[in-house]
Write a structure and sequence with these properties.
alpha+beta; five-stranded antiparallel beta sheet; 1 helix; Elf1
């Protein structure tokens, strides 16, 4: 008589979560806000970032620019900075109607 064999269980691996790339637009409320980041060097030779925030909803077309961001900022950090400035009214925004999804 032999022993019962032990049942082998599959190891549980937690799902690696990724940062979002599309955000909610504060003007229209849809999940269509995309942020384009570009790196550049300022006059002092420091690396900085410039962001273009755009809503891809053809009915909204929100646009805004954020400049002189720290080089460590990612898209999520830029979105939170955009929301802060948008809610305080410190940001120049404009609307381009009729823009289609690229």
């Amino acid at each position: 008589m032999g022993r019962r064999s032990r049942k082998r269980y599959k190891r549980f691996k937690p799902v690696q979560r990724t940062l979002p790339k599309v955000f909610q637009c504060p003007a229209c409320g849809m999940m269509t806000l995309i942020i384009d980041l570009e790196s550049y060097e300022n006059e002092l030779g420091e690396e900085r970032k410039h962001a273009l925030v755009k809503c891809m909803n053809p009915k909204c077309g929100l646009r805004a620019e954020l400049s002189d961001l720290p080089s460590i900022y990612e898209v999520v950090d830029t979105y939170s900075k955009f929301l802060d400035k948008y809610s305080k009214g410190e940001l120049t925004i404009w609307f381009e109607k009729g823009e289609q999804i690229e």
